[in-house]
Amino acid sequence: MPSYQFRRDDAPAFKPKEYYTIRNPNSATNSLSAGFQMDTNGGIRMVSFNTTSSENWQLFFQSGRYFIRNWDYGARWQLGLTEESRSIPKMYPRNGSLSQQWRISRSGDGWRLVNELWGDGTVFAQPVGWEVPAMRSEMDGATWNITVNPR
Predict the structure, then answer these.
(1) What residues make up the domain containing 61?
(2) 2 found inside a domain
(3) Residue 106: exposed, middle, or buried by beta-carbon count in 10 A (0-12, 13-18, 19+)?
(4) Which of 40, 107, 139, 140 could bond to 35 as cystine, CB 3.0-4.6 Å?
(5) Number of compact structural domains in the chain
(6) pLDDT tens figures, 76-122
(7) Residue 59 lies in a domain
(8) How far is the CA of 75 from the CAs of 69, 72, 83, in angstroms?
């Protein structure tokens, strides 16, 4: 397990009561979605950007980590991985495990997301031509644009 010490400069970059859209330059006309009203059984994908409720993400900061929640799924579900499914994140019932904890850090003009189940060296990415983002060791598509959705 990675050890982590909370530092003062780890202050949250995102407001917990705001909702954000998460987009990737490799899929410029699309936005990260968890389906429409939970119709994907937790699966995520990139969809044509139109700010539906499933494209709204809450970045909830706690003890140096983020928990990523979706508008349609609510606070009882969080984006994460499992030991059995470590490559494609999806929505799971909230449990607070490492697999649902994310580090979100500045990367050039955007943000890089690292899941604590994997730790450093593997990032959440949207490679060119892929419909579903995945955890990757390659950096192609690893920078995300996260912007407030004014609703």
Answers:
(1) 12-148
(2) no
(3) exposed
(4) 40
(5) 1
(6) 999 999 988 889 999 999 998 999 999 999 998 999 999 999 989 99
(7) yes
(8) 6, 9, 22
